[in-house]
């Protein structure tokens, strides 16, 4: 998926069961990468984008994801756009969605206490192995070795979209150029796919994303602008 992925299973379960649960998570994420990667020429996304595979012949997961992305395009006034760069790229939703699905499966399998982190998109449930709520660090946008915020909670979906790791990869779809104004956007909610898409859309909006996030129901946010100002909802977790 083009990023580092870590999994912390905090339930007191037999080692063999934990290994099986972890194996299931990484098998699923490899499947998602094979299907949705924009870096793999043989992925479903790339084949659909090139016109080699009709959408009607694509997997149910791909069709469902693109339908959800179409809904998000409407909900964000067009700022969440899978064609913003000129080619099909649903990555701004897929990574969060994939982690959310994996977390839901862990919960259904009896692993009620876990933290799954895919490159800053984090889904936590229950408690850590210390019995305390999970602590989620948000990377400092100018110092890769530091955090600028720490969130705590027992049931959180935390998605961060920024320009400090992959450069200005989020495009303003209306102007067709890399978005500017917001260096890091973190959105906190209950569904990681949705939080991921909202964070991406806010970055694409630039400074106007601040007012849009403030009016977003059932979500909280923390934003660091290009001029190093911190804006956040109250309270953060």
TrEMBL record:
Transmembrane segments: none annotated. GO terms for molecular function: transferase activity. Keywords: FAD, Flavoprotein, Magnesium, Metal-binding, Transferase. It catalyses: L-threonyl-[protein] + FAD = FMN-L-threonyl-[protein] + AMP + H(+). It comes from the Bacteria. Its cofactor is Mg(2+). InterPro entries: ApbE, ApbE-like_sf. Its EC number is 2.7.1.180. This is FAD:protein FMN transferase.
